[in-house]
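Cobalt-zinc-cadmium efflux system membrane fusion protein: structure, please.
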Amino acid sequence: MKQLIIILNISLLLAACGGSNKEEQKTEGQTAENLVTLTDAQFKNAGIQTGKLEKQSISSLLKVNGKIDVPPQNMVSISVPLGGYLKYTKLLPGTYVKKGESIAIMEDQQYIQLQQDYLTAKAKLVFAKEEYERQRELNQSKASSDKIYQQSLADYTSLEILLKSLAEKLELIGINPANRTVSNISKSISIASPINGFVSKVNVNIGKYVAPADVLFEIVNPADIHLVLTAFEKDVNNLFIGQKLIAYTNSNPEKKYPCEIILIGKDFSEDKSVEVHCHFASYDKTLIPGMYMNAEIEVKSSNATVVPSDAIVSFENKQYVFIEKGKNQFEMIEVKTGNTENGFTEIMIDENKAKETFVLKGAYNLLMKMKNTADE
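Here you go.
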């Protein structure tokens, strides 16, 4: 019985040792898969160069989108303050007009009535003024009562007020009251363009009646167009006034338009974005308000851990670098990569690993050696 117990104990001990050896062999096998060892000749031919990781500022491209807009002073909605019927216009969307150019003729009987009221008030004012001056002289000589004098003053003042208000109404519809006489009373008025620009909208047709609140035309002066981009909260801190960027359209991405940020919004919308206003370096007539554009903004990230881009190799859709483990021996470790600039690429790596000596040149040769060894 005692011998049987001893035999069982020895069997269990051997089994435990065998399992331990298998675990050790398995661990060594996993590590060996990421290790590559070169002979002196292979090391020389591979052109291996090693060194420590660097810290430097590296740029990245922030890609945003937006559309072309114009400032409020460069977009005008044309309406008729007193309303009326459209008698004539030749405008079509895209038509270029000059400031002061007649763009429409309107007709309405109220234009006739307004001119009539003005000329009537003007004639009455002449009489009222003479009567007021006569009553003033009589009152000074006590030949008339104060009541009659005050009444003539009130009549004269009321007509002055009426004439001034009617003159303002005439100017509102484009009629110069100083040139208005009995012989040139007109049933029509001319609408003039207040700015130079292109017609963007035509909302009426000839013969249609328009109310004072209706917009007949919209005119845009594109000389001061700007680009309005949408930037999200996480990117706003990387933007600043005067920052340069490149914009392009979807239809012609090869043509680049240099721009500069002139204004950054201060209020976030519901989707946590702000408007970024940019000026084009030069005006291009092919750019039309409302056109959608893409933009690339170069931003800086400070103190990034970088390696030469050639030090990073791709294998099975993952990124790797090699670290030196001993004489002519190197280990491949996975890393996450960031932005690339001037031949350097940012990598995200554990702080302890970052202190190791890395392969800066010849990493691809090490990968080929490792794959060839695995195939064998």
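Notes: The chain has a mean pLDDT of 85.
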